[in-house]
Amino acid sequence: MTLLYRAIWEEDRQKLDEVAAAAFLAWLRSKGIELEQLPDGESSGDVHKPRTSSLSLDQYELFVARAESEGVHGLRARLTEQRQGGSESWTTKLTVLQGSEAGGTLWVDVERESEDPFARLVFKAPRLVKTLLETGCDPRVGGVRLGSGPLAIDAAGLAGLIANPNRRLPLVVFSHDWAGVAETSARARAAYDQLAGVVQVYVLAPEDVEDLKALVGDDLAVWGGGARLYLPNRGDSGLSPSRHRYVSGQVASRFPAAAAERFAEMLVTTVTATRPPELFGAVRRQLREGVDRDNHDLIALADEEAQALREKLAALEDDLLDAAADNEELAGQVNVLIERFDEVARHTQLKDPDDSAEVGLPEDVDSIGDAIEFANLLPFIVIHELAPVDIEKMESDLRSGSWAKQTWLGLRALNEYAATRGKHDGGFYEWCKSSGSPRTWNPSEKKLSMTESAGVLNNDRLRARRQLPVDTQVNASGRVEMLAHLKIAQGGGPLIPRVYFYDDTRGSTGKVHVGFIGPHEHMPNLSTN
């Protein structure tokens, strides 16, 4: 069973256990499980679905337990749904904890078990969570209120939340798009629908955009229809911009949930690592479902170990964000140096300023998609329309910011190389080694390979993957073997980007042709296969 979603929040309603039980019962009925009341203990049955229903739920198992210990009242209700003919099992748990004061804590987990454990899933808040939030009395995580939908916020309030070192709840903030208020509202609502309970969604008014920049700096702001995920401000790198991922207005405008889906990918590890409430310890044994009492200590230990592993994974993710922040800062410094070298080169006539015709192009980009879009404006590089593969998937990764910058640098290096054809000996590798151009790519084996390993070359199946699309001016079949590739990043992993290219600078087109930009998993070798 894999934990996909966890939301834990406090609120102030009286008789919270009765209110939550009623909400859970209504939620069951909406699924076709007709019950007069929540039965104690374990029960099961068939689902009575209307013919027009699209629900794939056929059978259910229900468990309800109540407990009281050390002044803590607890309720747990668990629904397990068998879906896809029994090949998938989804479990939703609602836990209510009340102490001596009014109100209490609500906690919802969603778990999944499947015959296909490698299926890629993005979590989405269950309707039960949205119902509880929308009918709640001051639901909150720490000092951050959970609204019944997206909330408006001003620059001063948002800046205070961003910088607050005690904030535990991530924030998602949308800026208004010039296309209209309706578009912005649809994106914010889609984010709330997907992320309710684990973030608070805000909308920043247009008149507050510049004020926010003045308060937090341009690199932490949000503007132009874009959206940003502000993680809790932890540690020395808590306010590093790359920790708080930005989705540009262009990307957010692709469809209403475009930003929400990216943020869900980024949050999946952090969300599931949230610690159970302290009150839970008092009633943990009594709320344990379907387990022999003699096994409680062993199960409690296993739970603690699993929670420790989730927290360790979340900590590693924080370290990864910090490394990404450092990497992007260094990449920015490199880009500044490149621009300065370019100026020197132009003034000293080391190169013809018209050769690469890159006037007006940015030195930096925010996404891999932007890198590809701008590279299509370069005159000596051709990116085949089929070359980009799973770009959205790569951009959901925490390291996508640094990948985007490196991809842009690599594509510009290929264009620069092609622009100086006939002015140097050898191919791209030799040009990078000896040309002296400020736009060369690092020719080390960790960053560039002009061919594939013997294992790939001698394996017909793996080698066939390198038959990539190309302009028919290069090959009438529209395919050519591409072995040379840029290694955008190191460290392994299926999403590490690769850029495969074919050098036709001395051929009929006089250009470099790119046939693949995508995750390494699509270009396996013997070590990854």
Short description:
With about 525 residues, the protein is α+β, with helices and mostly antiparallel strands. The protein folds into three domains: about 1-140 and about 275-290, Alpha-D-Glucose-1,6-Bisphosphate, Chain A, domain 4; about 145-255, 3-Layer(aba) Sandwich (Glutaredoxin), CATH 3.40.30.10; about 320-520, no CATH class.
How would you describe this structure to a colleague?
It is a single chain. It contains 15 helices and 20 strands. Residues 349-357 have low confidence and may be disordered. With 529 residues, it is α+β, with helices and mostly antiparallel strands. The chain folds into three domains: 2-138 and 277-290, Alpha-D-Glucose-1,6-Bisphosphate, Chain A, domain 4 (2-Layer Sandwich), CATH 3.30.530; 143-256, Glutaredoxin, CATH 3.40.30.10; 320-522, no CATH class.
